[in-house]
Amino acid sequence: MKFDTLQQGISFYENYARVSGFNTSLYSTKKRKSDGKISLKYCVCNKEGFRETPKLQSNCKKKRPITRMGCNARITLKLIND
Questions:
Q1: Which residues fall within 8 angstroms of residue 11, CB to CB, at 6 or more apart?
Q2: CA 38/CA 78 separation, integer angstroms
Q3: How does pLDDT run across 16-63, given as a tens digit for each residue?
C-alpha cells in the first residue's frame, strides 16, 4: 500500500491492530544521512520479542507477569520518492 504521509501509515496500522485485537508500539526509525528525513519506520505488536530473564533477587516479593510472547506482527513503512 502507499500512503501520502508517514502518520497515515502509522494510523492505518494502529486501526488494523485494534480491529485484530492487539496493540502496537513504534520500534525503530532509520534516517537518511543526506537530509535527515525518516526513511524507514517499524511498528510492531507490543508483545513482540521476549523479556530478558532477570537475575533473581532475594528481596523480590512479586514476580512481574509475562507481557512479551514473541509475536511477529509488524509493518515496515518506507519512504519512496516519486
A1: none
A2: 8
A3: 888 888 888 887 788 888 888 888 888 887 766 666 666 655 566 666
Distance CA 1, CA 65 (A): 37
Helices in 1-82 by DSSP H: which ranges? 6-20
Q: Helix, strand, coil proportions of the chain in percent (round to 5)?
A: 20, 25, 55
Name the DSSP letter for residue 4.
S
Distance of CA 73 to the CA centre of its chain: 9
Q: What is the pLDDT of residues 61-75, one digit of tens each?
A: 666 666 666 677 778
